[in-house]
Write a structure and sequence with these properties.
binds fe (ii) ion, 6 helices, eight-stranded mixed beta sheet, 25% helix, six-stranded mixed beta sheet, single chain, alpha/beta
Length: 258
């Protein structure tokens, strides 16, 4: 039995949310998707509100993962405790609300999803993800595991993937919002893509109006970040997992552009 998983890159702002709502159902049909994981930590630009999480589930996500901006909008805190289908990075302080991993039913059997955040170029100090993942995998022994590693550095993402090769079914990266072209199956059967990309405005600097980003880098005073106008795209990846072995048998980048 195989499981076809669609992982969707960071949904950015209202443009990203409405693009996701418009395209995800038909995309899932087209690729015969059994299970869909969407990164939602930028649904409100920085963070996510409960109604935006509801919109992502309504659009067709089975699980929402988050990242360094999980608590950008504190209104999400009770939602994170109450809804086990939304995950925040497991390597944040244990006292914070929410769950870092979960086990979910699919037509092909149970699958585990974990969310971790990297430490390179992150403006806070999460626990070491390489050590936290050991503990998570001990709890999930025998289950196929999917990991959204929300991280800036390619090296950190690749090192994690080689560390987990043969121990998990697939790892994808989020956070940089630019899709990488290195989809692959590692030697021991873990499917991998360094970064999924994003779901949001095409003519933008990782989703934001270029003028705002330029002003920021020039050291000028900037207004609150706003998503760029214009056409959007959805970036992600399809992973096929053989549920009898837990190995990834196929990985393919997915791009939708009007
Ligand atoms: Fe992020």
């Amino acid at each position: 039995m195989e499981l076809r998983i669609l992982a969707v890159g960071d949904v950015v702002g209202l443009p990203g949310l409405s693009y996701l709502s418009r395209h995800l159902r038909s995309l899932k049909q087209l690729y015969k998707i059994d299970f869909c994981v969407v990164n939602g930590e930028n649904a409100n630009g920085v963070g996510i509100l409960p109604r935006q999480a509801d919109l992502i589930f309504d659009a067709g996500a089975d699980v929402i993962t988050l990242g360094n901006h999980t608590f950008g909008r504190r209104e999400i805190c009770p939602y994170l405790d109450d809804n086990r289908y939304i995950l925040r990075p497991a390597n944040l302080a244990p006292s914070l609300p929410g769950h870092g991993w979960g086990v979910f039913e699919t037509n092909a059997g149970p699958v585990a999803v974990a969310n971790l955040v990297g430490r390179c170029a992150m403006d806070f100090t999460p626990d070491n993800p390489f050590r936290v993942v050991d503990k998570i995998l001990k709890e999930l022994e025998g289950l196929p595991v999917l990991l959204d590693f929300h991280a800036e550095a390619t090296s950190e993402k690749l090192a994690m993937a080689y560390y987990l090769d043969g121990k998990i079914s697939a790892q994808w990266g989020t956070h940089t919002h630019v899709q990488t072209a290195d989809e692959q199956i590692l030697p021991n059967g873990t499917g991998y893509l360094t970064d999924l990309g994003m779901t949001g405005p095409v003519r933008s600097v990782i989703g934001i109006r270029p003028e705002q980003s330029i002003a920021n880098f020039r050291g000028e005073l900037t207004s609150r970040y706003a998503p760029a106008p214009g056409p959007c795209a959805l970036h992600g990846a399809l992973f096929t997992v053989d549920m009898s072995t837990g190995r990834c048998t196929h990985v393919e980048r997915v791009n939708v552009l009007d």
